[in-house]
Specification:
The protein is mainly β. The chain contains one helix and eleven strands; from the N terminus they run E-E-E-H-E-E-E-E-E-E-E-E. It has one helix at 26-29, and strands spanning 5-7, 10-13, 18-23, 34-39, 46-51, 57-59, 67-72, 77-82, 91-97, 101-102, 106-111. The radius of gyration is 13 Å and the shape is globular.
Length: 112
C-alpha cells in the first residue's frame, strides 16, 4: 500500500501564503506525476495543479499566477506554494501520486 504524507495546511488570512508538502515512497515518486486537488464543502474535488516526473506543470485557471507546484526528487516530496490566498481557496487539499494513490487531505482555511 502506498502512503502519501501531507503537511502544511492551516488557517491564514486572505492575502496570506501557505506551503503544502506531500511525501511519497521513493519507489514510485520518481516515475509518476504528482498532483494537488481540493474539495470545498458541497463541491466536487477539483484539480489544482500537477507536475510530471520531468517537471511539466499544469494549473487550474483559478490558481494560475498565485500557486506554484514543484517537486524535490531527492526528498520524494512535492510542494504547493500558495500565495494571495482568498476565502474561495478554502478546502481540503489532497495530494495524488500517479492515478490511484491519494493522501489523507489537509485542511486549508482562508479567513476574510
Amino acid at each position: 500500500q502506498v502512503q502519501l504524507v501531507e503537511s502544511g495546511g492551516g488557517l491564514v488570512q486572505a492575502g496570506g501564503s501557505l506551503r503544502l508538502s506531500c511525501t511519497a515512497p521513493g519507489t514510485i515518486f520518481s516515475i509518476v506525476s504528482m498532483g494537488w486537488y481540493r474539495q470545498a464543502p458541497g463541491k466536487q474535488r477539483e484539480l489544482v495543479a500537477t507536475i510530471t516526473s520531468g517537471g511539466v506543470t499544469v494549473y487550474a485557471d483559478s490558481v494560475k499566477g498565485r500557486f506554484t507546484i514543484s517537486r524535490d526528487n531527492a526528498k520524494n516530496t512535492v510542494y504547493l506554494q500558495m500565495t494571495r490566498l482568498t476565502p474561495e481557496d478554502t478546502a481540503v487539499y489532497y495530494c495524488r501520486a500517479g492515478s490511484p494513490w491519494w493522501g489523507q487531505g489537509t485542511q486549508v482555511t482562508v479567513s476574510s
